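task queued by scheduler; priority normal; single chain, no ligands, no partner chains; default sampling; output format set to structure tokens
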Amino acid sequence: MNRYLKLVHMEVHRFRWVLAVLMGITAISQISALIWTLTKELSRRKEELPLNMGDSYLAPAPDQLTFEWAVFNTQMWFILPILACIGVLALYVFFIWYREWFGRHTFIYRLLVLPTARRNIYLAKVSAFLLFVFGFVSFQLALLPVEKMIFKLVVPADQRADSHIVDAISRNQALVELIPRQFEQFLYYYGIGTIAVLAIFTAILLERSYRRMGILYGVLYLAGCVSAVMLPFFFLGVDNNFMYVYSNEMFVIELAMCVLVLSLSVWLGMRLLAKKITV
């Protein structure tokens, strides 16, 4: 366990500055857009200009400004940094493995001869990646109360009305996708995402194990995983009016297929790392 934790610490340490920069860009983008939107609206009211003059894409401002309204009207500046973070993390799924093989000093050789079970290398990379994902989600959740406090500092008390952060999340498309309100939906989104990451990890290890033929094996493996998850919908019916099984039965079937793909990906990935990849 101690060696596993050291490997996780190493992975987090190598990516910490990238994650910090992504969080900084997110905070600066959202807070700047929030202050700019609120300042512009307050200036319009002070000068008694027409409602949303020159900004027809904005939602009409209520008599009493709310944090919910401010988040809705700045959602583009929420979407862009969140998409950038998702893009970087998506690329890191590949980089977290391939950087070990490329470069002046091939680090994978040092990893493979460490006095620890090779499965710890695999588990450490999975754990570190999930820490990055949920760390960013947690950061976004922690950022919202700060933004609400800034909203209260910018808008005078006589021109604002109270609103809940939950309502603000529901009005912002980026936050709705990043932070689902229902726990089941949260598990669904991030569970499918975790399974996808594990399948890609296994495809990468197939490519590293068999090189040119491994590319084909990896593509076929990913295609097989997608087919395993999607085929029940096509064979058992997608439309509720024509389904051959009950909804709860479909849920159980899909859950079983997801567990199967997850288990197979973890087992095959660890086996390839332990038995096939050599120094």
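post-processing summary
- The chain has a mean pLDDT of 84.
- The radius of gyration is 24 Å.
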